[in-house]
Amino acid sequence: MNLHYDVIIIGGGLAGLSLTRQLLLANNNLKIAVLEFRKHPVAEAIHKVGESLVEIGAHYFNNRLQLGEHLKTDQLKKAGLRFFFTHQNNEDISQRIEFGATFFPKTPSFQLDRGRFENYLAQLITEQGAHFIDEAKVLAIDLNQNSHTVSYSHQGEKQMLFSRWVIDASGRSGKLKRQLELTKAVEHDINTAWFRIKGKLDLDTWSSQADWLKVAPRDFRYLSTNHLMGKGYWTWLIPLASNCTSIGIVADAALHPFNEINHLPNALEWLKKYEPQLATKLATDQYEIIDFHSLKHYSHDCEQVFSAQRWALTGEAGVFLDPFYSPGSDFIALSNEFISDLIINDLAGFDIKLKAAYYNKQYLELFQNFLLVYQNQYLLMGYPGTMIHKVIWDYAVYWGIISLLYFNKKITDINFMQTFSSAMHKLVVLNKKVQTNFHNYINDPHAFPVKHFTDTMSYQFLQDWNTNLMQSYDDSALFQLLNNNLAYLQLIAEQYYQGKSLIPSELELETL
């Protein structure tokens, strides 16, 4: 067995496997070893959460990693995010205020069966020449100036490998993160519990109300990432291609203590109290619950993720925000783009010291700026009008700025990002002000009025900004488009500061 590698990746989950795939696509002569603690192949459906992809993560897997055929044939195409807000006792979904799309957006996204996807990736990278070692328990990581050493046990025997680069993709165990004392807490205090059931959980069967059934095409609600929302919490319903359904509870610890959801009986009782229609469906239709997990204080930060000393952290080994809006795979995509660029440049003989420092700063600042979307915002989930307008805002920032930069491969273009830095700073300030402003209106019955159903894509600018992601722009055109979008965001903010609902026909691009 070869003992010397260009890269050793600790962790063969989604982050580590996708980074391996990306590196081998960039240079198929690279020698890469992947050390995975679990036995492979893993079980479908019950492997891991993180099953909902949004645009950046979907584009990364679909286009950057060239996995489109698998996504289209072996996973489920996603009908966007869909939100149902509390109405009385939540016993009739047709009476709940609903926010979601009625047609597929131009930019595709998917629902992932993580077990199926990671099995496929592990097989794929092995065929590309990577050395994938399952049931490998990492014992020690020794970082040195010229070559790093990783010791691990496999089938009862101690082994040792050497490499120029070491990547920690070990998830929450954070092997290298803990060794280097890089753990950093965040104040955002949410807890979660989740389980999978066998079978299809189809929301269209929850009501026979004809007008409600006409709102969205058949199976459109089923193919959405559905959110059942209430004050301080949301519950996800995600369909999986393995004919299972993922169900999760995510709650603000201040409003819903962890001990109310940390075990399956508790979680089911919690659902009876806050989401009784879901609880009744689970009981009366006798769905088989095939796993259960819970996690306290989900979010975490990191002191450093990339180093010119040829180590890096990716995925949950580095940072994790919140499951809401499904940013996990987005941050895997972003970190892997930075890491791949550093490794390829280093192996080509370039000095990466300045790049590593810049990428590290950019990534961690992006995490902090995204954290504003979540921290202290779970209370808003109990106020439909306010929360819908927050979601519109968050979509707009995501599609109009962040995704546009990623899709046009500007995240690792330091010159472009520096040119755009003053505009990004304006966005950060604006976003912070808007996120804070929502709390001014939660007790105002006249603020942010909404209809019983709102179609996400009825806002033409959102439809346009999503479609724009599928186009390529030269630097000049992209810079102009980003600044136009920022100016439009400022117009939206002015409406929000007054507690006004966005009416699509009243907010036109011509007003810029």
Give a description of the structure:
The strands form 4 sheets. Strands 1, 2, 7, 8, 9, 10, 18 and 19 form an 8-stranded mixed beta sheet that branches. Strands 16-12-15-14-13-4-5-20 form an 8-stranded mixed beta sheet. The protein contains 16 helices and 20 strands. The protein has 512 residues and is of the alpha/beta class. The chain is 38% helix and 19% strand. Helix 1 (14-26) runs parallel beside helix 10 and helix 2 crosses helix 10 (328-347). It has 3 domains: 1-73 and 112-184 and 299-375, FAD/NAD(P)-binding domain (3-Layer(bba) Sandwich), CATH 3.50.50; 76-110 and 190-295, D-Amino Acid Oxidase, Chain A, domain 2; 377-512. The chain is globular and about 65 Å long. The chain starts with a strand and ends in a 16-residue tail after the last helix.
Shape: globular
- What is the assembly state of the chains in this entry? single chain
Residue-averaged pLDDT: 96
Any idea what the CATH superfamily of the largest domain is called?
A: FAD/NAD(P)-binding domain
Q: Say how many strands there are.
A: 20
- Unreliable spans are none
CATH topology of the largest domain: FAD/NAD(P)-binding domain
Q: Give a quick account of the main beta sheet: strands, pairing sense, barrel closure.
A: 8 strands, mixed
Q: Structural class, judged by helices and strands?
A: alpha/beta
Count of runs of 4 or more consecutive helical residues: 16
What is the class of the largest domain in the CATH system?
Alpha Beta
* Euclidean distance between termini CA atoms: 63 Å
